[in-house]
Amino acid sequence: MKKSFQIGSAFVGLIVGAGFASGQEVMQYFTSFGIWGTVGGIVATLLFIFLGYTFAQLGTDLQGASHKGVIYHIGGRYIGAILDILITFFLFGVAVVMFAGSGSTFEQMFGISTMAGSIIMVTLTILTLLLNTQKIIGIIAAVTPYLIAIIFIILIYSIFTTDLSISEADILAKEQASAAPNWLLGAFLYVSYNLAAGAALLIVMSGGEKDRKVAGLGGILGGVMLGGLIILIHIGMFMKLDVVAGMDMPTLALAEQLHPVVGILMAIALLGMMYNTAVGMFYSFTVRFIAPDRKAYKPAVVVIGLLGFIASFAGFTTLVEKVYSTMGYLGFALIIAAIIAWFRRINTPTS
After folding, report:
1. More confident residue, 287 or 64
2. What's the predicted TM-score (pTM) here?
3. What is residue 185's three-state secondary structure?
4. If we measure between CA atoms, which residue out of 2, 5, 1 comes closest to residue 222?
């Protein structure tokens, strides 16, 4: 159970930086649909549970040291190759976005220059990647309970201090920008986008676990925690839409309104999420080419980290923003491939 919880927490810890950090993502994919956004959150939870379970077990079955083997297994020779290239590029791109984002957060909350903030994040990421795999998973997993606690405090505050009725909040919600035409497609797009970010590390983590039941339970727990966070953040923002409407970082706005100290704690949580995502993405990217036990691994980590730092100041984030819009569709391809692999597995008689 402890190992399953660690896998699940690391899965959550990786995804939150890419899909939860600002609260803006939950606002656009769920809260903007008002009451129906809650139903969308439940649908997303069920999808995360199923897909977390499926990818974790595939990772264990194939003992994948990187995502490559599993992606080729579920996608075949040609589709697998396309998915592999896109995922690998996306891993590097998201890590670069985290470097740039952490620089901005350090500047906004603590008055540290953007470049200095990015240097701190790059240095921490490189040092972490020089550790062994289990230590990396442990570090990523450790931030998750802290994040859940902060979000839960904000939720309780939002519910008990709201000045809006549910009907008023529902009207205000539908005035917000949406990332999808309806709540159901919003839930699917959100899961598929995050899956494109999280599947690679979940496969790598599960590849180090020989018991498929332990890995599968880890995927399920990760799905439950991700879904719970979506619903908690959604309800917290829904009940305080008069405060967070139009804000770039709604979760930080709620935290700062509660108390300046909670705002600082939330800023630290945001940096922790970005750190988790940067570490997970760069680790998955590096092991796609070089196994962690090879001599070339550590020098490669330093070189790739420095390249990521340079890219964060060279306009690379603009390119990644364009790629982000395609990630939902890549995720759909992954979801379909995972479902086919799951049916194929349950219909194959065990020897």
Report:
1. 287
2. 0.78
3. helix
4. 5
